Sequence to fold (306 residues):
Amino acid sequence: MATFDFHHSMLTDEVRTSSFLRAIMEVVEPGDVVVDIGSGTGVLSLFAAMAGASRVYAIEREPVIEIASEIAARNGLSETIAFIAGSSLEVDIPEQADVLITETIGNAGFDEGIVAWVADARRRFLKHDALVVPGRVDAVASLICVPTDFMAIDKWSRPLQTLDFTPLSRIVRNNLIWTDLSPAAIVSEPVVVFGTDFSSEPKWLTGSVRVEAIKDALVHGIGMWFRSSLAPNTQITNAPPNTVPSWEQGFLPLDEPMVVAAGDQIRFEVSSAASGAEWRWQVGSGRTHITSDGQLSMRKVEEAVK
Fold:
């Protein structure tokens, strides 16, 4: 049921759904062949069919694809949309597509592996002049003050019933953590640290920026969110204050909070692998943090010890 709750939350996110609808109507031309990667309930494939696509290949590896097929039939679009079960990295389609649609934008933009999905699709599925929705994704970052989030991490550095749980502390301090940032948490003006228009195939996306503290604060880490141009005239972001409730933001924690004063200049670096599974970050001259696929997220750690 949790899977369907997840998809339902996306469908009922009016800003998210209407933005993708506008972008698809803007980009898809009558007669186009479209491929939709990570199609979920098939809503974006339905939009592409409504825009006049002659054929839509909806690729989804989760069981929700069965419901998506029923929804397409219910709306009289079974002849237009072909549902393909499996990972897009492991399946094929019988013809080259004019448009790629993928709603694999993560909370921090790149954490769902959108760069890898699009790169593989460009090599195997798309015509040389094919268009992509989203057309561009940028990762935006700011130094943040989030004492409550940091306390949830820091508690693992303290004994629990006289037992040493510091290995859990090491794990959670080296993970991209989900949170809901308020504008009050922002300590420096948000800046784009890296981004892509999907015309190249980078293995890593990396940025190093210098920012100015806009207030006296205790910095607990880097806040991450995205800004995307879905199509030339359609943009979307989950920047705080968040207007797209099906997305959160990311928090890259420091080992220890850092005191800053308004006007201080601080440099930080952030990198994301194309797969979205590995992140690296550093603030000032502090330790470089690395998170990689297979490590526990903070939420999973907390659930495990409840």
